[in-house]
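Handout, section 4.2: multi-component inputs.
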Amino acid sequence: MKTNRREFVKTGTVAGLGIAGIGLTVTNTFGQKRAKSKDAIIRDPNIVRVGFIGIGGRGTGHVHDSLTVGGIEVVSVCDLSQEAIDNVQKMVIKSGGKAPKGYTGSPHAFEQMLKNEVLDAVIIATPWDWHVPMAIASMKAGVPYTGVEVSAANTLEECWDLVNVHEQTGNQVMIMENVCYRRDVMAILNMVRKNIFGELIHCRCGYEHDLRGVKFSVDDDEIKIGKEAESEAQWRGLHSIKRNGDLYPTHGLGPIGIYLDINKGNRFLTLSSMASKSRGLKKFVSDHTKKDDTYREINFNLGDIVTTMIKCANGETIIVTHDTNLPRPYSLGFRVQGTNGIWKGEGGGDWTDAGEQIYVEGQSKEHTWDKAEEWLKKYDHQYWRDKGDQATGGGHGGMDFIMLNDFFDTVRNKKQVPLDAYDAAAWSAVSALSEMSVARGGALVDFPDFTRGQWIKRHPSFAKDGKFPTAPEREYIENLF
Amino acid sequence: MKTNRREFVKTGTVAGLGIAGIGLTVTNTFGQKRAKSKDAIIRDPNIVRVGFIGIGGRGTGHVHDSLTVGGIEVVSVCDLSQEAIDNVQKMVIKSGGKAPKGYTGSPHAFEQMLKNEVLDAVIIATPWDWHVPMAIASMKAGVPYTGVEVSAANTLEECWDLVNVHEQTGNQVMIMENVCYRRDVMAILNMVRKNIFGELIHCRCGYEHDLRGVKFSVDDDEIKIGKEAESEAQWRGLHSIKRNGDLYPTHGLGPIGIYLDINKGNRFLTLSSMASKSRGLKKFVSDHTKKDDTYREINFNLGDIVTTMIKCANGETIIVTHDTNLPRPYSLGFRVQGTNGIWKGEGGGDWTDAGEQIYVEGQSKEHTWDKAEEWLKKYDHQYWRDKGDQATGGGHGGMDFIMLNDFFDTVRNKKQVPLDAYDAAAWSAVSALSEMSVARGGALVDFPDFTRGQWIKRHPSFAKDGKFPTAPEREYIENLF
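Output:
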C-alpha cells in the first residue's frame, strides 16, 4: 500500500473537504494554515499516527493500552505536567518506539500540537471542561479521527458543537465509552440482537460509585479539593459544588443506548430527573476536618442520588442513577428487560459476579434466576473471543484494550466510528437536561434530536461482526428503512 | 374485665360518637338503626369478635391465620360463594369454634351483615373496587376497627373517603399491608431506627411479579379473563385493560413509607411516572390462543413497566416499580440507602436469599456487600422473636400471622391502628396519581396532604416496642415537635 493521506475517505454525514496532503501547505475548512513537510518520508500506511492530549492517569493508561494493541506510532503527547510527558516518553521508548514529541507549558499547548503534527488520530483524556474545546479543535485542524473521553460534553451547546463541527468538517469524533466494550455488556448485546430477551421494554443503568475519595484527595486522613488538591480532585469534585444533575451518565447509557438502537432506529424523547437531598459530601468533610476548618463552609449542590427517567421513541423506558456521594460497593446497576427475559447486571463488571443474573422464559428454571456466567460465555462477543487473552492485562479488566483496538481498527480502515458524534451528544446531553429537570423539581424536558431526523433511517452498526448475527426478524424490520 | 363496648376508646383524629351499646337499639352517626340484643350474654372481653367480608383465597387465608393467632371469635363471614362460606364454617368448627353466620346472595350482603352483627373488627378481602365502599360502610356501621386489604383505594376520591369517614366516625381503618411485617423488612426497620444506615437519602421498592397467570386464569393452556374466568382473573386482569399506572404500589411503599416516617414527620410531595409500551399481555394472549380468537382483539392500556419517582418533604427520593406483565422472578426490589450504608432487598422475601445484601461503612469489608442474613438476625424484630415460630406456618412466610396478631392486639387493647387511614390514603394514592402522570407523559403531579398538615407533628408509632429502641438523636428531633 502507498502512503497517501488523501485516501482517508470521509464517512461522516456530510462529505469532508479532504485532509492536509503530505508535504503541502494547506488551508483547511476553517482557514488555518500549516506546514506538513516533516511527514514526507515513506511510511507504513497501516501504522496509525496518534497524538494524546491529556496524559494523567487515564491518558497514560490509554498510551499503555494503545501500545499493547499495536500498529500505532505515538507521535506526540500534550499535558501540563512535564513529568507526565517524561514518563510517557520513557514508556514509548521502552516499547521499542521513538520518543513522542512533548507539548506543555500552557493549557492551550494542544493547539500548537494540532497545528504542527500530522496525525491520523487524537485521543483526549483531560478534565471534562476541556473535552469539547479540544475535540472541536482536533476536528477543525483536520484530524480525521478524534477519540474523546467520557462524558463527552457538559452542556447542550457543547453537544451541538460536537455534532455541528463533525458535520462541517467531515472529520469524525468517537466517544470513548469503554463500558460499551465490557465483556458482559458485549455478550448481552449479542443476546439482545439474537432476540433472546424478546422485544426490549425497559432498561436500567447508572453510575453507582462512591467517589468521595476521588472528589477529594485524601492524604493521611487530610482532605483537599480544587486547586489545593491532587489528580482528579483538582477539578472533578468542584462539579459537585456547583451542579445538581446526573454528572456522569454515559457508562450506563452507552451500553443501553446501543441495546436500544438510540440514534439508529430509536431516540431519547424526554426525561424527568429528581435529586435527593445532599448530605454525603458535607458529612465526608465533617468526618475528615476539625471544627473550624473552612471546608465546612462548602455547600454541595449535587443531590446524593439523582434519578433520571427517559422515554424513548419506540416506547421503552430507561432509569439512570447517579450515586457518587455515599458509601456503597461499586455497580453500574444494569437491567435489560424484554418480553422474553431479563438481565440484571449489578456486579462490578466481572461476569462471574453474583450480581450478574439472567432469566429467560422457557429456558431458565421457573421463577429462578440463572447465574449469568453460562449465558455470557455462550454469547461471548467475537471481539473478546479474538482478543480476550491479550486484553485482560489492559485497563478496566480489558475493556479499554478492546475499545482502543476497535478505535484504531476504525482509523486504519477508514471506517465510520462505532460510537459517533450523535451518540456522544445524546448520551452526554443527559447531564445538562437532568440539571434542568432537577431545577424544576422533576419536570419533563425534551431531548434535542441531534441527528436532525436521520435516526429514523440509520441502521445499528456497533460491533456487528462475528459469530452472532442479528436475528432475521430484527434485520427485516431494520431493512424496511 | 367487664364487657362494655363503650369502653372502646376512640383514638382517631376526631373523637368518635360512641359505638352501639349492648342490647340497645342505637342510632349511629349516619342515622342507621339496628338491634343488638343477641349480644347480651356475658362474654370474655378479650375475645375479639370478627366478621370477614370476602373469603376467597385471600380471605380464607386470613380466617385460618386469625384462628392460629387466637383470641378471636369468627362471628360472621360474607361472600358471593356459598361454597366458600361452607368451607370456612367447617374450618372454624374444626378449630373448636361455633360456625360463623354466613351472608351471601348479593354483592351487597355485607350491608346486612354490618347491620345485624356486633363486631369489634371487620376484615375485608374483596376485589379492589369494593375495598373502600365496604370499609366506609363498616366504619359508618360503627365497627371500631376495620382491616382492609391492599391496595386500599383506586382513586383519589376513595383515598379521601377513607380519611374523611375515619375522621367523621372516629372509627379506625387499617390498611393490611402484610409486607410491613415481613421479617427482613422489620429487621431493617430496627436498623433504620437505630441509625445504622445513617440519615436516609434514597429508597426503592416495587412490585416485580409476573402476574400473567393471575390476570388470566389458565387451564390446560386455555386462558380466560373477566366474567368468563376464575378467581382473581375475574377482575384483576381487567384493570390492565383500562388503566395505565402503578396499579399495586403498597407492598413496596408500605415498608418504605414506614422507614421514611411518611405521615408522621414526613410526607410524599410530588411524583412523576413513566410507562413503557405495553407488550407482555398481548404476547401472552397471542402465545395461548389460535389465530381467530377474539381475545386477540383486546388491547391493554397498562404499560409493562411503570416507574414512579417520588419526592418527599424531607428531601428523600423514592423509585417505585410496577412490573407485572413480563416473565421474571419475583421481587419487591427494595433498596434503603443512607449516609452510612445501604440495604438491597431484591430477594423473594426469605432473608437468606442471595438478593439480600447490606453494606455499612466502617463495618462491612470495603467495597464489598455483606450477605444480609447476619445483620437481619442481629436486628430481628421483637414481634418475630416472640412469635416467629408460631408465625412460620402462616400465609406468606408468616408475615400474615404477624400482621393479624398486631391487628387483633390493637383491637383488643383499643389502641391506634399501626397502619392507619392516612397511610392507606397516601400509599394507595400512588395508583391514581401515577395514572395522571403517565397520561401526561411523566409530568409532575402533587400529592394531596391527607393529614391536613398533621404530618408535621405526628410521631412514628409502627411496631415501636421491643429490643431496639429508636436512636436517641432521632428521638430528640422527633420530640421537638
